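Students often ask what a holo structure prediction actually looks like on paper. The answer is less mysterious than it sounds. You provide the chain, you provide the ligand, and the output is a string of discrete structure tokens encoding the 3D arrangement of the protein together with adenosine-5'-diphosphate.
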Amino acid sequence: MAQITEKTLVIIKPDGIQRSLIGEIVKRFERAGLKLVAVKMVVPTMEQIEKHYTLDPSWRQKNGEKSIKGYQDKGLEPPTDDPLEMSGMTLEKLKKYLSSGPVIPMIWQGLHAVAIVRKLTGGTEPLTSDVGTIRGDFVLDSYERSDVDKRAVRNLIHASGSVGEAEQEIEHWFSNGEIFNYRLVQESVLYDVNLDGILE
Ligand code: ADP
Ligand code: MG
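The corresponding structure tokens follow.
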């Protein structure tokens, strides 16, 4: 069962910082009731980025299939039919994208943190990300255009895709001493069974 201590990793990518969207992004997670338990700014190395995306051995296959489907759904020819070749090209572009400036890794905690953050983040390609999501509301990009420019799709943030992925990614970006265990007063309203602490 989902725990109220579930954690997820978010990284504000270099474009998110350059677009002055740090506050807006943080606000969206904060107002949903999630708790920020770790945050820092770093310029990641290429090695750190490659490791981040390959912690999950199935990422290469899944990312390749999703990208190819993204083209096919729009009646476009993908650059290759091979998912592994597709994601290999994307990984090289991601290393350049994420090492181009400072990024902000953060850990958000709360009930269903992983799924809630993914929902608020929106789909990978801003062209088709839902309206109301961070990627749908604040940026415009597509696989088609990023391909012509030979770069990664710019979509402002990273968010862990599953609880298992989140655990590995948190360990990759943070040491235990950087993660805080503290109480937030609003948690008594979010999680108390009887809401019996309100009336005097
Ligand atoms: P998500 O970030 O939504 O979990 P993925 O893990 O599949 O998506 O991909 C990681 C990142 O790689 C994306 O956020 C995006 O910046 C970039 N990306 C993914 N697919 C492509 C693609 N086909 N072309 C360019 N960039 C891509
Ligand atoms: Mg992902």
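The pocket of magnesium ion (ligand 2) is lined by residues 161 (CB under 6 Å).
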